[in-house]
Amino acid sequence: MSEKTANGSRARILTGDTPTGQLHLGHWVGSLENRVALQDQYECFFLIANMHAFTTRADKPDEIRRSTIDIIKDWIACGIDPEKSTFVLQTEIPGIAELSWYLAMLLPFNRVMRNPTLKSELDAKGLGDNYSFGFPMYSVGQCADILLFRPELVPVGEDQLAHIEPCREVARRFNQMYCGVDSHTEDEDYVSAGGLFPIPEGKVGRVARLIGTDGKHKMSKSLNNAIFLTDTFKQIKKKMGGLYTGRVAMDEPGDIHNALFDYVRAFIRDDERIKELEEAYSKGDNIGDGHVKVEVAEHIDKLLEPMRERRVPYEGKEGDKKVLELLRAHTEQANNAAEETLYLAKQAMKLDFGKRSLVFA
Ligand code: TRP
Fold it and tell me: How far apart are CA 35 and CA 139, in angstroms?
């Protein structure tokens, strides 16, 4: 079944990742899994936010480039099919920077700065007041990333919802101000009421926030508590083995709301087995943490196995070359979609002076 818009075309998805390292299990359960599941029903655009990576790592262009290529490999490994979906390399889409400016005019400065995800990123990085102008600008840029592709749906991890909200606000405002849409219009009716932008909806994955193998914080590369999609069984077992639960003996009743059981429920995809483990563990029925950890590690390994296979044709320098070729071809597709929106947006804003041609025609 495919999701249709009012005019009968396939509804769209846009989402993406910032290239600051390889993708991990938190990305998988939070968003990647949804992307793979939805790529047949929707017309999908998957974005590498490489411009955003410069907000905090302007001095590391080599790393950003490396990670850009690695993330495309991660996507393909996950089962995102480059024949079905379009990859969007942010820095190759000039319309993103242009639309960011127009949207910045419709977003109050204080609204941008009130974004809790921006705040917690600054905290986590210990930046205090020491951040570039470009740092908060990225959240306006993220509205442009999304709106330029006019998606209905944005599958993201929970932390990203705070970016979707201003995007929805600015889309409503644009539609009201420049397309004459009444401010009482329901979100789902903005386009049929003459608006340019659908009001996009965030969609959080099966596990909103996966805890890291430190058992404390959200899984994140910078906190060194991540299981990467490229990890071997040995690495997975070792990382799972280090997950601290505080339980001392296997005949001691265990707390099934601990971090270990978050993993049980996230990665053992068999409800019967989950129930069995929960019962035994909570009774202290001779079931040790070690046993549960190995069982979880085996399930994670099973999940990653087909990913390893899909990765093979993209290994090494030759693989890098293939990725770059793919990106080049996809950039043209992405710009066609982007230029169409920008043309229409500038028309709505009475800015259709130039000769921006309809590349999509
Ligand atoms: N900020 C997102 C992240 O770091 C990446 C991103 C950039 C994004 N633009 C986007 C996600 C647009 C969804 C839609 O994970």
Answer: 22
233 phi and psi angles, rounded to 5 deg: -55, -40
Query: Got the DSSP string for 177-221?
Result: HHH---TT--GGGTTTTT-SS---EEEE-SSSSPBPTTSSSB--G
- Between the CA of 279 and the centroid of ligand 1 the distance, in Å, is 39
CATH classification number, 233-311, choose in 3.30.2000.10, 1.20.1280.170, 1.10.3520.10, 1.10.240.10? 1.10.240.10
What is the CATH number that goes with domain 12-209+315-348?
A: 3.40.50.620
Residue 359 has pLDDT above 60, yes or no: no
- pTM of whole model > 0.90? yes
Residues with CB under 6 A from ligand 1: 14-18, 47, 49, 52, 142, 145-146, 154, 156, 160
Between 229 and 250, residue with greater pLDDT: 229
Q: What is the pLDDT of residue 326?
A: 97
235 close to 213: Cβ distance less than 8 angstroms: no
pLDDT for position 31:
93
Which phi and psi angles does 95 have, rounded to 5°?
-60, -25
Of ligand 1's listed atoms, the one at least distance from the Cα of 18 is 4
Pick the residue whose CA is nearest to atom 9 on ligand 1.
Answer: 142
Mutate which of 12, 13, 17 to test ligand 1's pocket (most atoms within 8 Å of Cβ)?
A: 17
Distance 153 CA to ligand 1 centre (A): 13
